[in-house]
């Protein structure tokens, strides 16, 4: 028998047929200054901007970013085809910029971790946690928690320019987590 899901109260053990083909595509974070946020995610995490969509009537812009896997067909050149392609991917990060926030000195979004808590964090898995920590240190990325701190070892939390928490894990180090 192959694994399908852990069983817990409230878990629907057999996905409904109507949900076949559903894919979690993206998570959205609001950013104060797209130039700062785009620099962070493209330079520090190596993400690529798949598509930018402007909505002048509502005064906001969406940026869709992802890590492009090697060996796969590249995104389409045609903007419409690339938009459809982008919305068919997994693991996309949408950065939403409401125009004018970058010019407001005291403006900031709630990070979800201050009271009242809500949203918590996004997570990147890395092939080598120690190398990633050195890279974050070289780039003066602020930490919430380093891997050796706290009760949960081998897990780091850093902050992006808007204060959102990003969990950093090396999957091979987590085999004993929760046992």
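^ Assign residues to that structure.
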């Amino acid at each position: 028998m192959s694994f399908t899901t852990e069983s817990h109260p409230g878990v629907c053990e057999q996905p409904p047929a109507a949900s076949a083909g559903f894919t979690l595509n993206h998570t959205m974070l609001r950013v104060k200054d797209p130039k700062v946020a785009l620099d962070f995610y493209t330079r520090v995490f190596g993400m690529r901007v798949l598509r930018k969509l402007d909505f002048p009537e509502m005064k906001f812009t969406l940026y869709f970013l992802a890590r492009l896997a090697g060996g796969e067909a590249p995104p389409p050149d045609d903007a419409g085809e690339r938009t459809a392609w982008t919305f068919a991917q997994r693991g996309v990060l949408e950065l939403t910029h409401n125009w004018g926030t970058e010019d407001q000195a005291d403006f900031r979004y709630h990070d979800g971790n201050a009271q009242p808590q809500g949203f918590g964090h996004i997570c990147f898995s890395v092939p080598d946690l120690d190398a990633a920590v050195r890279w974050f240190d070289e780039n003066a990325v602020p930490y919430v928690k380093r891997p050796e701190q706290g009760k949960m070892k081998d897990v780091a939390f850093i902050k992006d320019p808007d204060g959102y928490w990003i969990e950093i894990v090396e999957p091979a180090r987590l085999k004993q987590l929760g046992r």
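The longest helix spans residues 34-44.
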